[in-house]
Amino acid sequence: MNAPDRSASQATVDFELDGRTLAAYAGETILAAADRHGVEIPRLCYTPGYRPDGNCRACVVEIDGERTLAPSCCRTVAAGMKVKAASARAVASQKLVLEMLLSDLPAQGYKWNGDDAGRPHGELSAWAAKLGVTVRPALAATARAQPAPDLSHPAMAVNLDACIQCTRCVRACREEQANDVIGYAHRGFESRIVFDLDDGMGDSTCVACGECVQACPTGALMPKSHIGSQAVDRKVDSVCPFCGVGCLITYHVKDERILSVDGRNGPANHGRLCVKGRFGFDYAHHPQRLTRPLIRKPGVPKEIVGTPDPADWQRVFREATWDEALARAAGGFVTLRDRHGRKALAGFGSAKGSNEEAYLFQKLVRVGFGSNNVDHCTRLCHASSVAALLEGVGSGAVSNQVNDVEHAGLILVIGSNPTANHPVAATWMKNAARRGAKIVLADPRVTDIGRYAWRTLQFRADTDVALLNAMIHTVIDEDLVDADFIARRANNFEALKANVQGYSAEAMAPICGIPAATIREVAREFATSKGSMILWGMGISQHVHGTDNARCLIALASVTGQIGKPGTGLHPLRGQNNVQGASDAGLIPMMLPNYQPVKDDRARSWFERFWATPLDPEPGYTVVEIMHKALAPDDDPHKVRGMYIMGENPAMSDPDLNHARHALGALEHLVVQDIFMTETAWLADVVLPASAWPEKTGTVTNTDRMVQLGRRALDPPGDARPDLWITQQIARRMGLAWDYAGPECGVAQVYEEMRQAMHESIAGISWERLERESSVTYPCLSADDPGQPTVFIDDFPTPDGRVKLVPADIIPADERPDADYPYVLITGRQLEHWHTGSMTRRSHVLDAIEPIATASMNSGDLAKLGLHAGDVVTVASRRGEVALTVRCDDGTPDGVVFIPFAYYEAAANLLTNAALDPFGKIPEFKYCAVKVARGGIPMATIGYGRRPAFAGTA
To answer: Chain centroid to CA 179: how far?
Structure first.
């Protein structure tokens, strides 16, 4: 829900409200001005941030000189206006509206969002109580026939007998989230809310964002988890634990369980949420939670055979005390370090935890293990983007925030499926398109955002550089460059110009599959619009030429001057809730906190003094390199023999999973710290039960560079412990005198240490400020600095302040289709599931909506293979094979198979290629050769949501 932005103009007008002279902003409504001054006026169809509709008439006021009462939610203030909200006439009308609405509602109520006083109909009952309205039952002769409840949706209940037809749900669905599912149908006495063509909610195209539920004032739409008593024990403000958008949320907790989640009016989401953020919270209560430390039994081989059943954990592990488990974990690390040297150990941290956890984890590896062998999933997401950005503009962070698309004339979405991967960010794009911005979707797959696109560039997979160089060529060839920007702020333009001479649109059209005229048209619009903004995802980065793809995007934005001002810039959309923050905090092998190179003597010396210990001057190994080193010969002095993995699941997320699982199984000592028995945990020597996101206090940094505070809503179950506590305990047992004191395992003290290490970006963001404001954007260098949502306005953080343009040429994928493997595999996420599925597939609602693994192909390819949607197919590469259900999707191009990677029973990464981008060291997840055959036996599905509890550990 977007609050009015008054920063552009603070002009005010004076008016009189119930005898008081008040100031209103120019263009402000009477109701909004009254709210700001603490004057309550009833309202039902109005909610802050939505377009006022004025249909309920509960907010009417009397205006001197006017014959009729006016709806205060729609009427703007005029200078000298005299308004009476509490006059006898206005109040009588307000009360009449409330009485009429109440008289038509059932005696029972449904409203779920915290009416602790027991009033049955939420906001309607609350306003009636305030105005002293007495409820009278409807006359039998005029009472409407009450519609039957619709319980067809896994997450939401529809009880239209409580509907007052305020249309807040319609505006929520159509105007805020832009999903166009809810409508208002029929006429007169028969008028009602409908889903699509009057379908059941569960049968409609609803994407379960729940915006309608949050908007409904009476409970006609409500989450099923809140049927019954509406009272909760407490409400706790936090941050969504899923994608990098960083939506602020409020947990509703009762009997130490989260019952529901509301969106808060945070700067990234303005109250909006997606299906995962609103309904994916119950994974924290799943019976499979790890609650006691486990130690592998002697002689049990480290292997994953079939689908491990969590109920069978006692075959592999035995329970242990914390003292024994920590001694075993830390002792193994010390033994390997002292016997084989500091390169023998490595650590994978997590982008699903807090900044403080990431900072402390990388510090442990560098100070305690003694090397820079530390990494996390950014290596599998945006490492290529970061490499190109650091090289070109001197910063790996975004230049403009997502909702800055509001100021753009053209929005280039490339290699990203935002409606599935970043749904709330996608709403800003859809809203911008409806206001006139032109969306260009550039992707091998036509995804849902294509419905809003001005032009769709469905280029052939692996031809990103060909398409982008053709656009750059057009800009230069047609003299559309921003000559002033290039002269003042760019280096290496002549080399770029020379390099793209052979990349005309006409020459590249046969390669990328986009007509030359279309390429030129889009390039012209990009160069000449009032603001052109580029947002990209892992479809850009997860290639052997991922860094080159990003270099081309940097060049395109720079030669057109589309950077450093509103509605422009470069934005790699982060996939996990703390990918940005974990990288900022130093959870990468070649960079210390704040992206200071480990090879930089000055930077390294500063940290040596700060941490009071010598540091390794050589970059460590990346995720994929560590796996190779785990399988190195015993005489290799840099062989990795022990690993500490916190909150990551490389046995599902790494490419060529058979190789990755073999590497993990070959380790002499593997310690896994997690909340579930993941595929990686099955290969561990010691498993440490950790805390889920609702069970911890800490900060995360979203894709917009917003540092945001999450607060603990629950205690960890059983004997599980906070991650910060576990890491500190291991450090102490390795001889480090760490003593971070204070609440929540010293989280504020860890944050303040991290703030000193990252003073060039977050010096002005104190812990106290975060507790007060919840969200602050960096760079923020002083206590009174509001933060900088747009950067690179005057210069770039490079040595000379100028962007470095880096030419790129076509590099083919490492593995191309051939007669044996004729199809291209593209992997990715889907709306309901996230990362490796260890959390979302343990959510009842999310698992109910998308319970099985699927492979998507278009109808033409299905027909060629004699297949129909719902058939079982086997998809195989040179590395492995999976059997799964085929789905028809005509947005998938000819010769391409798309498989989500969240399903353990059909792990897409059994197929993917581990070939690396030489700069970003990121695997080529988005392109490998596969074959498809009818039939196969899907792996036995012991669904996460349906698995029995861990015996003895629940």
So the answer is: 18
Separation CA 171–CA 168 (nearest Å): 5
Q: Residues 500, 472: contact at Cβ < 8 Å?
A: yes
**Three-state SS for 74?**
coil
∠ CA 891-895-900 to the nearest 5 degrees?
Answer: 60
Residue 475 to residue 484: CA distance in whole angstroms: 15
Q: Tally Cβ neighbours within 10 Å of residue 305.
A: 7
Q: What's the Cα-to-Cα distance from 909 to each of 66, 111, 528, 654, rounded to whole Å? A: 69, 44, 42, 7
Rounding to the nearest 10 degrees, give the CA dihedral for residues 903, 905, 911, 913: 50
- In DSSP terms, which residues pair with 17 in a beta bridge? 20, 83
Considering only residues 925 and 108, tell me which one the structure prediction assigns the higher pLDDT: 925
Q: Retrieve residue 93's tokens.
A: 């009308």
pLDDT of 119 strictly over 70: no
| Interatomic CA distance for residues 402 and 536, integer angstroms | 11
Beta strands in 781-877 (DSSP E): 803-804, 823-828, 854-857, 872-876
With residue 511 as reference, give the H or E element that holds it.
helix 505-512
E strand spans, 711-809: 775-777, 803-804
Q: Comparing C-alpha atoms, which of 755, 46, 635 is closest to residue 340?
A: 635
pLDDT at 941: 52
Closest C-alpha among 572, 302, 263, 527 to residue 422:
572
- In sequence order, the 6+-apart residues with CB closer than 8 A to the CB of 464 are 414, 415, 540, 543, 545, 549, 552
The encoded tokens of residue 592 equal 């210390």
Residue 893 identity: P
**Model-level pTM?**
0.94
Beta strands 881-888; 872-876: pairing state: antiparallel
Tokens of 672: 């896994």
DSSP labels for 205-242? S-----HHHHH-SSSSEEEGGGSS----SEEEEEE-SS
Please tell me whether residue 823 adopts helix, strand or coil conformation: strand
Contacts of 139 (CB under 8 A, 6+ apart): none
Q: Residue 940 has what pLDDT?
A: 57
The rounded radius of gyration (Å) of the Cα atoms in the chain is 29
Residue 114 has pLDDT above 70, yes or no: no
Helix (H, G, I), strand (E, B) or coil at 857: strand
Residue 101 identity: L
Q: Which residues make Cβ contacts (< 8 Å) with residue 170, sequence separation at least 6?
A: 182, 183, 184, 193
CA–CA gap between residue 259 and residue 279 (Å, rounded): 10
Encoding tokens for residue 891?
A: 């947005």
The C-alpha atoms of residue 465 and residue 813 are separated, in whole angstroms, by 12
| 717-728 burial code (b ≥16 CB/10 A, e <16) | beebbbbbbbbb
Residue 111: band (very low, low, confident or very high) from pLDDT cuts 50, 70, 90: low
Q: How many CB atoms lie within 10 A of CB 447?
A: 23
Q: What is the pLDDT of residues 349-407, one digit of tens each?
A: 999 999 999 999 999 999 999 999 999 987 778 889 999 999 999 999 999 999 999 99
DSSP summary character for residue 613 = S
Nearest CA among 708, 777, 806, 787 for reference residue 394: 806
Q: What are the φ/ψ torsions at residue 800 (nearest 5 degrees)?
A: -105, 5
Q: In the predicted model, what is the mean pLDDT of residues 632-660?
A: 94
Average pLDDT, the chain: 93
Residue with tokens 């959510």: 843
pLDDT at residue 113 above 70?
A: no
- Look at residue 33 in the predicted model and tell me its pLDDT: 96
